[in-house]
Amino acid sequence: MASLGLSGKRENSISIEEDENMKIAVCIKQVPDTTDVKINPETNTLIREGVASITNPFDEYAVEEALRIKEKHGGEVHVISMGPPQAVEVLKNALAVGADKVYLISDRAFAGADTLATAYALAKTIQTIGGADLVICGKQAIDGDTAQVGPGVATRLGIPQLTYVSKVREIDWEKRRIVVERLLENGREVVESSLPALMTVVKDINEPRHPSLLGIKRVAKAQIPTLTAKDIGADENRIGLKGSPTWVVRVFSPEARGAGGEILKGDLTEVVPLLAQKLMDTKFIK
Amino acid sequence: MARLIVDPDTCTGCEACIPSCPFGSLSMKDGIAVADERCNFCSACVEVCPVGAITVEKEGKAAPVDTAAYKNVWAFIEHEREKVSNVSFELLGEARKLANALGSQVCGMLFGDRKDVDHFAQEAIAHGADRVYVLESPLLKQYRTDPYARAAVDLIRKYKPEIVLFGATTQGRDFAGTVATTLEVGLTADCTGLEIDPETKYLKQTRPAFGGNIMATILDYPHYRPQMSTVRSKVFAMPPRDDSRKGEIVRETLQMTAEEVRTKILDFIKGTETVNLADAEIIVSGGRGVGNAENFKVIRELAGVLGAAVGASRAAVDSGWIPYEHQVGQTGRTVRPKIYIACGISGAVQHQAGMKTSDVIVAINKDPDAPIFKIAAYGIVADLFAAVPKLSQEFHKHLGR
After folding, report:
1. Most-buried pick from A127, A231, B44, B95 (CB within 10 A)?
2. Quick check: do B67-260 and B282-399 share a fold?
3. Which of residues 50 through 79 in chain A touch B, CB cutoff 8 A?
4. For B152-211, what is each residue's pLDDT tens digit?
5. Please, where are the H alpha helices in B40-130?
6. For chain A, which domains are there?
7. What predicted TM-score, i.e. pTM, was given to this entire model?
8. Is B173's CB within 8 Å of A190's CB?
9. Superfamily of domain B67-260
10. What is the pLDDT of residues A177-221, one digit of tens each?
11. φ and ψ at residue A181, rounded to 5 degrees
12. Residues of B in contact with A203 (CB under 8 A)
C-alpha cells in the first residue's frame, strides 16, 4: 500500500488488511570520486583521466537506513537513480546490499538538468513506481554540494521533509508517524512528522554495510530496469536543460592559494612565538 | 533537446577540450572531439577550444517572464534561539551592493512571533534594509519548513523581488529548496561571489563545485524570476550597524492554520561545545595524529584560549575520539573561518574540501610531506604535543587570558 500523487494525497486511507508492504524509496546518485580530481598546474584544467565513479557517500547512508528500517519495521526498499547508462553500477551495489528493487532513470532528454529539473524527474519516478511511504536521500551529493534535490522532491510530492537527519527515533507505519533527530549547527532538533515524508540523512546516522561476495555475484548479471522520460510521464518542459532555470555560463579553476606557504623552521621555542606573532598580526584574533 | 556540436571541418583534433570537461564526457574519435551522454552542456569546452569548433545549441524556452515587474533585492532574515543569525546581516550588506548596481532597494523578509519580530526588524534596518516584510504568527516562532515556506512563497508572489538571498545554513538550505521548487524558479547553492552583469543586469552567481576543485558561474534564464541564491556565513563582510537608520515595516498575515503544519518540534538537545563550527572565526582541528579521545584536551585548550571552535578530521571522528558534529570535510561540515589550525591532520583532499577556503590555514604536523602543508599559509613540522601546548601558552601571554 503506497499510493501517493503529486498532491501528496494517498488514494486510500491505510488499511491493515492489505498485504502489500510499506515502501521506502531511496534516491541515489553516481558521482565522480572527487579525491581523484586534480588541476593540471600548467593548463589550469581538471585532470579527469582515470577518475573512478562511486555512489555518493551520503546516499550509502540513505540506502543503509532504508535497509535498517525494513529489517526492524518491515517494508520494501526501492532504489532509484537518475543518470547516464553507467549509473547502473551504483544500483547494482544497492541490490547487492539488499535493496528489493532498483530503477535507472536515463534519457538524453534529462541531460543538463539542474536541481529543479532533477527533483521533478525523481518525484515523477516515485509516482510511477506507485508512490512511497518514506523517501530517503543523502543530505547532498559531493559533486554539486547543493542539498537542494531532497527538499525539491518532497515539495514536488507534496510531502513533509526532514532534512539533516542523524537518527530515526521512532517509526510507526500504521499510525503514519515518524520521529527523528535533525543535526543542526548548534545541536539536535527532535521532530515528529506525519507519513509519507521525505528525509535526508547525514553520515552520523549509521555505518553502511558492505555487500557480501555472494551478493556481488548475484547482481553481476542483473538486468536493471531503465525508465525513460516517457515512461515516467514527464512534461518535456520540466526536464533536462529545458526544465532548468539555471545555466552554467562558465567553469574555471579556483584561484590557486599563495602556493607553498611559509614553513617555519627552527627550534620550537623560536618558531612557536613567531607563529603566534604572525597570527596576531592578522588581526583575526580578538 | 540541447545538443553539443563539434564542427568536423574546424576541429583540429588538438584535444585541448578533453581535460576541460568537468564531467569527463569528451574523447577523440577519428581525430575529432565527441561528447558522450555525460555531457551536461556546461560550455566549459566551448571556451577552451582554440579554433571555435564547439558550440552548444540550446533550444528555446517558454516565453520570458516580464522581468521588469520584478524589483528589489531581498534577504531572508534568519533567526534561531531568539537571535538573528549573523549571516542575515552579511546578506543585507551584499544585497546593498547588488541593489546599488540595479538602482533598487534592499528588503528583509522576516518571520517570527510577536515577541521577536519588531526588535529583529529594527536590527535588519540598522544593517541596511530599506524595508522589512514581516509575518507574525505563533506558528512562525521557530523555524519549520511548512509555515515558513508558505509565508515566503506568498510574499514573493505578491511583491515580486528580483533577487532573494538566503543563508546557506541548515535552515536556509531546508527552506530555500522548498520555496524555489514551489515557485519553480532557479536556486544556486553556496555562492561565494555575486555580481550584477553590467549589460543584462542579470545576477551572476559564482560557486565552488566538485569539492572546491572547480568554480562555476551560473545565470538564471530570464524566463524565471526571482533569481535566488544561498550564501554561507562569512563569505560576505558584516555591514556596519547604524541604529539611527530608518526603514519601513510592511506587515502581512500568514495564510495557514496550525493543522496544516505537518511537523512538530518535540525537543532541542543543545550541542556540548560553546562555539559552533559554522559561526566560528577561528577553528582548531585535530586529526589522526591526536591519537585518542583524551588527547583532544590539547586541541580544546588552544581553542579555549583563542575563543575558537573545535574541529576534527574524518579519521578522528571515525576512531570515536570526538563526535561527528565536529567533522570538517566532504562528509562533515564545510567551514570558512578566518583562521584554521590543523593539528596532526595530513590534509586529504576530502578534508581540504571542507576547509580550504579558510582565510589563513596553519598546519602543525610531524610529516613534512603531509599535503596540508601545500595549502597552509604557515606550517610547523613538529609533533603536535610539543608544539600545540606551547602555542596555547604564547596566546595566553598575548591575550592575557
Report:
1. B95
2. yes
3. 51, 57-58
4. 999 999 999 999 999 999 999 999 999 999 999 999 999 989 999 999 999 999 998 777
5. 44-48, 86-102, 114-126
6. 23-243 (3.40.50.620)
7. 0.85
8. no
9. HUPs (3.40.50.620)
10. 999 999 998 889 999 999 999 999 999 999 999 999 999 999 998
11. -105, 130
12. 324, 327, 331-332
